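Researcher: Next sequence.
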Amino acid sequence: EVRLVESGGGLVQPGGSLRLSCAASGFTFGLYRLSWVRQAPGKGLEWVSVIGPGGENARYADAVQGRFSIFRDNAKNTLYLQMDNLKSEDTAVYYCATDEARGQGTQVTVSA
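Model: Next structure:
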């Protein structure tokens, strides 16, 4: 059974930073590309970033380009999202996802 468990969310002031983690199990982690997606209050799912199986080909949504960084540790079956210079519009529930599954999410709130 695929299991994705996100952590690291919280309340942060504008301009602050957070690092999200996603612990994965139930599949061969190093063979799959992984993504972060988010859902802001009252809105649909928004793709944030993707990374290839070996950590290559990281790509970002325009809204987070230059502020967020995706990386992974295949030895630890863990995906990360480093988020810097956070803005109020980054407030959302953040999910890590394979092409077919996603976790329960972690809340990120950016507010003064």
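Model: DSSP finds no helices and ten strands in the chain. The mean pLDDT is 97.
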